[in-house]
Amino acid sequence: MSETMRELLQAFDALPPLEQKEMAGEILRRCTVDESLPDAALDELAADLFRSYDAEEDARAAP
User: What is the pTM of this model?
Assistant: First the structure.
C-alpha cells in the first residue's frame, strides 16, 4: 500500500460516520463507471445513506 493510500485511509478514519458513508458511496460510484456493481447494490447504498441522513436529522431535532 502506498503512503498516499495510508494517508487517505487515516483521513477517512478521522471523519464522522456520516461523512465516511458519503465518502464510501462516492468512491463506489467512481469505481463503478463500468457498471460492475449491480443496481440493487447501489440502491441499497443510497437507501443506507438516506437512512443515515434521517437518523442525523432526528438526533438534531430531539430535545
Answer: 0.52
Spatial separation of the C-alpha atoms in residues 32 and 4, rounded to whole Å: 22
Q: Which amino acid is at 61?
A: A
Pair 29, 43: CB distance under 8 Å: no
Query: Could you tell me the three cell numbers for 54?
Result: 434521517
Q: Give just the sign of the alpha carbon dihedral 10, 17, 53, 45.
A: positive
CB 19 within 8 A of CB 49: no
Q: Map residue 20 onto helix, strand or coil.
A: helix
Instruction: Profile the chain (63 residues) by mean pLDDT over runs of 10 residues.
Output: 91 90 82 69 80 82 78
Contact between 49 and 25 under an 8 Å Cβ cutoff? The reply is yes
